[in-house]
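Human: Respectfully, please carefully check these tokens:
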Amino acid sequence: MSVDVAVAEAATDELLEAMNRLLPQLSSRAGALDLASLADLLGQDALTLFVARAEARIVGVLSLVVFDIPTGRRAWIEDVVVDGAARGLGAGEALTRAAVAHASERGLSEVDLTSRPSREAANSLYQKVGFERRETNVYRFFIETRSH
């Protein structure tokens, strides 16, 4: 079965269904999207959403974020998820390669991502594609939010 990857151009019911099916497989904190919030995401200049299809069904997504900071332009891969029922078809690899090619076409010389060590298959995939593990620390600060 072949996997085709394309850039999501518009917020459609099909894409919305796929995002709401896939994102909970990535994170328990992922809230459901609606069509307007999906359109807002796709409307961001910094974000390119790649969609993988197998047998005409969306089986995976990947976000590539490109942004400028004082030291230069950066590309970052986020929110890579392939449907559990479609793993092993090559969707993750196809998505990752498409994102790297897109970054290269935009003149970037490197792409970053993070992946938890417990995600062994994902880490193996990224290394297979050519990503190199960096020695760095990732920190997160949790900001207390209040309801109004």
About this structure: Strands lie at 3-7, 47-54, 57-69, 72-82.
